[in-house]
């Protein structure tokens, strides 16, 4: 029997929920809907991005087989978006799979995400 559950939020463990929400607000243009010392939520649609503080949090490595999930975003211009996100604290790991079809970045706490042309 299928449960038919609808996703409500994608939640990331992190050290600083506010910093993460502000970073992803710049990535998505979504509104920050909640922020306190322990959590932050972004977006008013059917699904939100959420960030929860975890004491001693350390981001994933890359490439690393213990990586569990990442977000994919499409943008009009990958190079321009990459440079803008770097000014906001993103990094571009040396290892870039996909033969140029997308660019892997890491947010300010090391969570991976990809940019691809829309």
- Mean residue pLDDT: 93
**Percent range for helical residues?**
10-25%
Residue share in β-strands: 25-35%
Structural class: alpha/beta
Total beta strand runs: 7
Radius of gyration, CA atoms, in whole angstroms: 15 Å
- Report strand order across the widest sheet: 1-4-3-2
How would you summarize this macromolecular structure in one to three sentences?
The protein has helices at residues 17-28, 78-87; strands spanning 9-14, 32-35, 39-42, 48-53, 71-75, 103-106, 112-117. It is an alpha/beta fold and 118 residues long. The strands form 2 sheets. It has a 4-stranded mixed beta sheet, with helices on one face. The chain has a 3-stranded mixed beta sheet with strand order 5-7-6, covered by helices on one side.
SSE topology:
Layout: E1 9-14, H1 17-28, E2 32-35, E3 39-42, E4 48-53, E5 71-75, H2 78-87, E6 103-106, E7 112-117
Parallel strand pairs: 1-4, 5-7
Antiparallel strand pairs: 2-3, 3-4, 6-7
Can you characterise this structure?
19% of the residues lie in helices and 30% in strands. Strands 1-4-3-2 form a four-stranded mixed sheet, covered by helices on one side. The mean pLDDT is 93. The chain is of the alpha/beta class.
């Amino acid at each position: 029997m299928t449960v038919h559950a609808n996703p409500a939020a994608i939640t990331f463990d992190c050290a600083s929920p506010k910093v993460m929400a502000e970073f992803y607000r710049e990535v998505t243009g979504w509104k920050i809907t909640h922020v306190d010392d322990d959590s932050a939520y972004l977006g008013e649609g059917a699904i939100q991005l959420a960030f929860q503080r975890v004491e001693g949090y350390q981001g994933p490595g890359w490439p690393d087989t213990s990586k569990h999930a990442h977000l994919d975003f499409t943008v009009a211009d990958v190079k321009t978006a990459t440079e803008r996100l770097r000014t906001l604290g993103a990094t571009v790991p040396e290892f870039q799979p996909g033969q140029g079809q997308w660019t892997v970045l890491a947010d300010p706490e090391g969570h991976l995400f990809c940019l691809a042309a829309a």
